[in-house]
Amino acid sequence: MSDSLAELRAKINAFVHERDWEQFHSPKNLAMAMIVEAAELVEHFQWDTLEDSYQLTPEKREQVSHELADTFVYLLRIAEVLKIDLLHAANAKILLSAKKYPVDKARGSNAKYTKYQEK
Amino acid sequence: MSDSLAELRAKINAFVHERDWEQFHSPKNLAMAMIVEAAELVEHFQWDTLEDSYQLTPEKREQVSHELADTFVYLLRIAEVLKIDLLHAANAKILLSAKKYPVDKARGSNAKYTKYQEK
Amino acid sequence: MSDSLAELRAKINAFVHERDWEQFHSPKNLAMAMIVEAAELVEHFQWDTLEDSYQLTPEKREQVSHELADTFVYLLRIAEVLKIDLLHAANAKILLSAKKYPVDKARGSNAKYTKYQEK
Amino acid sequence: MSDSLAELRAKINAFVHERDWEQFHSPKNLAMAMIVEAAELVEHFQWDTLEDSYQLTPEKREQVSHELADTFVYLLRIAEVLKIDLLHAANAKILLSAKKYPVDKARGSNAKYTKYQEK
User: Fold this and answer.
1) Of C21, C42, C73, which to mutate for an interface test with B (greatest number of B Cβ within 10 Å)?
2) Contacting residues of B for D35, CB less than 8 Å apart
3) What is the pLDDT confidence band of residue C117, given thresholds at 50, 70 and 90?
């Protein structure tokens, strides 16, 4: 089984191409498809306490794993269609977040960064 | 800038750890955070036609890139916290989808696979 | 200030019509707009414990109130565009749910109804 | 069948109370449940063109009606638990939106109001 991101992207693209599904994969449609998968993940945890959400039965673990996979696949497709380098984008965003959430202010706090800026 | 998934995961984990944010990163909370980011992506396309959604101004392109990055970061965090191998999960899911959507039936169709099973 | 649902619907319809926004209000677009508002609500609670989510500062209370209002407005618009009677639909759904979740089995349980059916 | 909002709220509250489900209905959990329902609506339209999304088969119409109902029920529950008057909130929000989107600037435009403020 493939273990690289590049191989996964190529596999997904081939899957879509074989089925002639590019025609349905506009960014708008893919954004909808991705949030639907994200919601299927949310559904698994909606009635859980925070503590319970760490504890998955094997059955739930497999389902959660499928929802994560589906979200990931659509995320990769959107990036593909829009020619956005997801790894580059994530690395760039972390640099930005590091500025918005400096360690000394953010440590142990779940406040939004705008709270620091107000002060 | 890092270009591997393993490096990105390590970088995100360090970012979270430095801020002592693991305490907030229950699967339940992370699933909520991820769908919020997915929705910020949806917002960019909500009034677009399908055709327009391919056309991004440089400003919108950068914002979309940030939303994809944020979604990706939370996706990686959920996988991390639950010890789910995202690449493995995605590859396994594609095999499943290939069975649910055989090329001869799915080609050019946006019908849900349950439609084939009804027939 | 109006206190009836019918008046609210009429007011929203007039608001949309004055701005010539019916052209953007396809069910697809409205469904996207509604989930974006639902996510803005989720964002307010994403790092809260369950207990904390009951406690709103006046500022947060006002913001939450706005997100609920926005979700409601789009919900009413979708129903309007598709000519679905929301009150009727909700009443009908409650009857269905009462069958899916009989009191004796559902009492005090957060299990999905499919769990009963498996037994 | 009830046709008033107040009766619907009372019916939902009774439904929840009979099943002793108030314990699960924290604002956080309800916000998750509501977005899951909103996503089930999105799913119905994700591969549709804008035009197609107006055209529902009787079967799809019924399903869409159920998703709208479910979203509505959770919306009412959140408002109930937080003691927010949904009709009041919606009417207040429309007044705010009327200021953010003055007819002369917003007519026929799908731009976000922040676009006006930039000018």
Assistant:
1) C42
2) 35
3) low
Residue C36, Cα to own-chain centre: how many angstroms? 12
Going by C-alpha positions, the residue among A17, A11, A20 that lies closest to residue A72 is: A11
Q: What is the pLDDT of residue D111?
A: 85
Q: What is the dihedral of CA A26, D54, D42, A16, to 10 degrees?
A: -30
Residue type at A92 in one-letter notation:
A
Give the Cα separation of B25 and C46 in Å (integer): 10
Residue D29 to residue A40, Cβ atoms within 8 A: no
DSSP string of B83-102? Answer: T--HHHHHHHHHHHHHHHS-
pTM for the predicted model, two decimal places: 0.95
Query: For residue B25, is it within any domain?
Result: yes
- Alpha carbon distance C117, C102 (integer Å): 12
Q: Provide the residue range defining the domain that includes C73.
A: 5-84
Q: Which of B33, B35, B46 sits opposite C29 (nearest CB)?
A: B46
- Tallying the residues shown for chain A, one arrives at 119
Residue D96 in domain: no
Average pLDDT score, chain B: 93
Buried b / exposed e across B35-67, counting CB within 10 Å, b at 16+?
A: bbbbbbbbbbbbbbbbeebeebeeeeeebbbbb
Contacts of B32 in chain C (CB under 8 A): 42-43, 45-46
Size of interface A-D (CB pairs under 8 A): 39
Q: How far is D20 from chain C (nearest CA, A)?
A: 5
Per-residue pLDDT in tens (0 to 9) along chain A, 119 residues: 345 999 999 999 999 999 999 999 999 999 999 999 999 999 999 999 999 999 999 999 999 999 999 999 999 999 999 999 999 999 999 999 999 999 999 999 988 877 776 55
Q: For D113, phi and psi rounded to 5 degrees?
A: -60, -25
Report pLDDT for A111.
Answer: 85
Q: For residue B101, tell me if it sits in a domain.
A: no
CATH classification of the domain holding A62: 1.10.287.1080
- Chains that contact B by 3+ CB pairs under 8 Å? A, C, D
A98 at B interface, C-beta within 8 A: yes
Residue A43 and residue A73 in contact, taking contact as beta carbons nearer than 8 Å: no
Task: Tell me how far apart the alpha carbons of residues C107 and C103 are, in angstroms, rounded to a whole number.
Answer: 5
ipTM (interface predicted TM):
0.94
Nearest-CA residue of chain B relative to A21?
B108
Q: Is residue C26 part of a domain?
A: yes
Q: Domains in chain A: how many in total?
A: 1
